[in-house]
UniProtKB/TrEMBL annotation:
InterPro entries: BRO1_dom (IPR004328), BRO1_sf (IPR038499), BROX (IPR038898). Signal peptide: none annotated. Belongs to the BROX family. This is BRO1 domain-containing protein. Residues 25-460 form the BRO1 domain.
Length: 470
């Protein structure tokens, strides 16, 4: 699997051993922290020193900043004040964005065919060994006895990249594959976004001196902005994960892909992507509930879309062989939110059926509302199991859609079921199975994130190859 031994006192190790993470509105898997790597030894003589130094500096910056943020996030009391720390989430994201265009120069998929067409006899370069850059390869030009010869050296597997895992049994994984590094970077970018969304939806202190309270309750002038911002950040996280699944994983050979840590396995990446969308829709539903203009049909659609996202997340994450720790806690979180989403969907479906005059609509409404109440009870049990699992956590004060639905579902289920039975079904046996939910396409999509173009420093290096073409 390419794993290497880890040392307990390394920077960033405490996050893996965290016992409690405090309040959680958005689940964030334990941060995968990069370890320092040596670019110089495997690349010296193949890349210009300036490129090697830049790669080294950019990655070293990420190692330090990511470890600092992970340390802060592992301390519940410091989460809300993370923006005042030495490394903010925005700084980490910017550092990762700066690193990617330079890193991608090692794996750019360009053909080397035809690079050296034409006569080289009159080439003025009298060199013993000269590196030319093209795609995944270094083309080494050898000059001897008036002849130029070429040797291609692949760059993709020259450097061994090391990352600390959180959900995998192995504490860290080292692989000599640049696409593994790109995948790990995109995963960390998504985790940073999830952490930011969590902070946006947790308690905040109003600038006008009010006591801290949950996002939708603190100063009205900031509430809508905070919730909308959280949706944008969750969609961005989904975009990074979607890119990782469809454009980076396929670049990794199958034998290496099977040995990736579960933290960045395809199933985990997909579950995280669906989680981000599901939580984004949950915030949208909370906004709709607060809006007097939002109809029952709009709320039902959002709830049903949320069910679809959490169903896909659950279907994916149940196939991952977690044993304990962060992985098992993540599975419990998805189970909890899937039950919550079903409770919301069946509640609004029941209300709409109750307003209909179609045959058996009232009977189906009763079954739907009873189903909503059962799912709400299941979600409470799942929530307790999630919070009890290590690292332990606790719920913030009620917020979003469930602040409203936790009270309305038991009340309406009891009242409307009793009323409908008295009016329509005296002495009759009612159906017990909840009706099928409507099938809606998920309207909230991941950001259309694409890998960035190469850093200009690579273009300057590659221009050497063009100089040798006549």
């Amino acid at each position: 699997m390419g794993c290497v031994a880890s040392t307990p006192n390394d920077v960033g190790g405490n996050w893996r051993k965290t016992k409690s993470v405090g309040e959680l509105a958005v689940f964030v898997p334990g941060f995968r922290i990069p370890r320092e790597v040596d670019f110089a030894q495997p690349l010296v003589g193949s890349l210009p020193k300036s490129l090697i130094d830049r790669l080294t500096a950019l990655r070293a910056r990420i190692v330090v900043m990511a470890a600092q943020v992970a340390e802060i996030l592992s301390k519940p009391k410091q989460k809300i004040t993370i923006r005042h720390g030495s490394s903010t989430l925005a700084d980490v994201l910017l550092a990762l964005e700066d690193y990617l265009p330079v890193l991608l120069g090692l794996v750019k998929d360009d053909s080397i065919n035809g690079l050296f067409t034409g006569s080289l006899f009159s080439c003025a370069y009298h060199l013993r060994r000269y590196p030319i850059f093209q795609g995944d390869y270094i083309i080494i030009v050898y000059y001897q006895n008036g002849d130029l010869t070429f040797a291609g050296i692949q760059l993709n597997d020259r450097v061994q990249f090391v990352w600390v895992n959180q959900e995998d049994d192995d504490e860290q994984t080292a692989l000599a594959n640049v696409w593994y590094e790109v995948l790990s970077v995109l995963h960390l970018m998504a985790e940073v976004c999830l952490a930011e969304a969590n902070i946006l939806l947790l308690r905040r202190t109003c600038s006008d001196g009010h006591q801290p309270r949950i996002s939708e309750g603190f100063c009205d002038k900031h509430a809508a902005e905070s919730r909308q911002r959280s949706i944008d950040v969750l969609v961005k996280a989904a975009g990074y994960l979607d890119c990782a699944i469809h454009h980076v994983l396929p670049q990794i050979p199958l034998d290496l892909r099977r040995n990736l840590p579960v933290d960045i396995s395809e199933g985990e990446l997909f579950a995280l992507c669906m989680q981000a969308l599901g939580q984004g829709i949950d915030v949208q539903l909370g906004i709709a509930i607060d809006s007097p203009k939002a109809t029952l049909a709009v709320k039902r659609r959002l709830a049903c879309e949320m069910v679809k996202c959490w169903h896909q997340a659950q279907d994916s994450i149940t196939k991952i062989p977690f044993i304990s720790g962060w992985g098992e806690k993540h599975r419990l979180f998805v189970k909890w939110k899937y039950a919550e989403a079903n409770a919301a969907a069946y509640y609004y479906h029941g209300l709409i059926l109750d307003e209909s005059y179609a045959e058996k609509s009232h009977e189906m409404a009763i079954a739907a509302l009873q189903g909503a109440e059962e799912f709400l009870k299941e979600s409470k049990r799942a929530c307790e199991a999630f919070n009890a699992a290590l690292p332990t956590s606790r719920n913030p004060p009620p917020w979003g859609s469930m602040k409203y639905l936790a009270e309305k579902i038991p009340k309406d289920a009891s009242g409307k079921v009793r009323t409908n039975r008295d009016l329509y079904f005296q002495g009759r046996t009612l159906q017990s199975a909840a009706p099928a939910l409507p099938d809606f396409a998920v309207s909230l999509k991941p950001d259309d994130y694409q890998l960035p173009p190469l850093d200009p420093s690579w273009n300057a290096a590659r221009s050497t190859a063009e100089t040798l073409k006549l």
